[in-house]
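Collaborator request, handled under Task 6.
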Amino acid sequence: MEDCNVIKRKKDKFSEMLMDIAQNIKDSAEFLGSFELQNVSDLKEFANVLKAYESKGDKYVHTVITELNKAFITPIEREDILQLAMSMDDVLDGIDSFAALMEIHSITTFDEYVAEFVKNIQGCAEEILITINLLSEKKLLQISEHAIKIKEYESRGYSIMDSMLILTILIVVGALGFDFINGFHDTANAIATSVSTKALKPRHAILLAATMNFVGAMTFTGVAKTITKDIVDPYTLQNGSVVILAALISAIAWNLITWYFGIPSSSSHAIIGSIAGAAIAAAGFGALNYKGFIKIIEALLIFTSSSLCSRLYCLYDYQANV
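Structure tokens returned to the collaborator:
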């Protein structure tokens, strides 16, 4: 009688396969949240380990398909078994894609939204494992409770994604706004001498400035690289997206103030100072890349000094020949 009970309680092979897939998801989610990224070099190991989990999941699904093709009788509909296996494998594919994107963009820190999303995935993975275990033990009445929890995790995930999307839209709108303001702000500084001396008509000067600004943006990326990496790397900050948005708002406000009062200033230096200030406010002075920041200050002092010297020389030469 005892042997009969053992046979009765034994899980079928498809249940064991689904349990293997669910356990693999749980292990992958735990690694995703527990691995400590210290620097960019750790990203390779991070992505490779999660890729191994994804490959293992593919093998499990392939085994399920092979056994379904061989089996004549299955514990539940074979289409449902296949759908369960493939749906769980999609979770692993998403985690693997996430790790690959982090490696591509050299992201070593989770911001608050991603950290919350990872915790959400971990909780959902735990519930998936429990649900598949109940299914394999034929405890169908207990499944609904955990299915509801999985649905709640899904809704929470969508809510986090919506918050991230709103923040991204605000950053894009802010960047476009800064770019637009930068156009009429710096163009006025660039063409003021040409227009005031009547060397160029205002229309021609504006067209020339617009063309050269566009060509410069398309062909030279030195300023962009300096702003994104040499001052502070937003990807290393816990709330990098918020820092970027704060820097854009600050730079836009400064540009509008200096434009309104006719104060000559540089939009590039405005965004550089804004990023530095936002980073300091978010993570302290240690967040700054002092080597890159000093390089910017050195360039500013050198070119300002050389420009002043050249103008003084021209003034002296002019007075000497009068």
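The cover message to the collaborator said: "Residues 299 and 305 are 10 Å apart (CA to CA). Residues 169-321 form one domain. Please let us know whether this matches your experimental observations."
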